Amino acid sequence: MRKAAWVGAALAVALTAGCKDRDHRDADDQAAAAADRAGNAVDSAADRTGNAVDSAANDVGDAANDAGTQVKRAAEDANNKLAGTPYERRDEFRHEVDERLAALDKELADLRSHVNKDATETYRNGVAAARETRRTVGADVDRLAGATAANWDELKTRVSVSLDSLDRQVRALRPDAKPMGGAGPS
User: Fold this and answer.
1) What is the torsional sign of CA 59, 65, 70, 71?
2) Which CA distances in Å does 28 have to 38, 39, 40?
3) DSSP 77
4) How far apart are CA 172 and CA 138, in angstroms?
5) What is the pLDDT of residues 108-131, one digit of tens each?
6) By the 8 A CB rule, do 114 and 107 touch?
7) Count of CB atoms within 10 A of residue 131's CB?
8) For residue 28, what is the enclosing H or E element?
9) How far apart are the first and last CA of the chain?
């Protein structure tokens, strides 16, 4: 009987131990399956996120291209409006030049009226130089009449530069310019 008790106890221990191994294997299988499902879910979410990021990047890129195109068009329009005076607007430019010249001629006549025996030599020389510059401006303005589309920009630039030079000379001769280095009449 003792033997039977020992055999029974050994069988009970063996059966119990065998069940625990099987339970552990089932738990391991279940954990592995859960990990696989979680991994698959993460992969799927990453794919969806990656696709969303790609789509958003494409949308941003398209929007940037559209904005760039609009800016380019606006810049071209502004450039066409402000890029100097095109040949087609030569009459308008000539009118602006004539107005500016009339004002400078009036001021130059007033400055010449102060040239007398009491005027300094520097002032007399400055007025003479301004009169010479005025003749150069007149010749440049006369060339505008024969301007073509091919030489318009060059002639327009020459007139603008010579007008600016005359304007600087006249400003330097003004009596109120004396503290700034002007030669004004004495």
Assistant:
1) positive
2) 15, 16, 18
3) H
4) 20
5) 999 998 888 888 899 899 999 999
6) no
7) 15
8) helix 2-82
9) 150
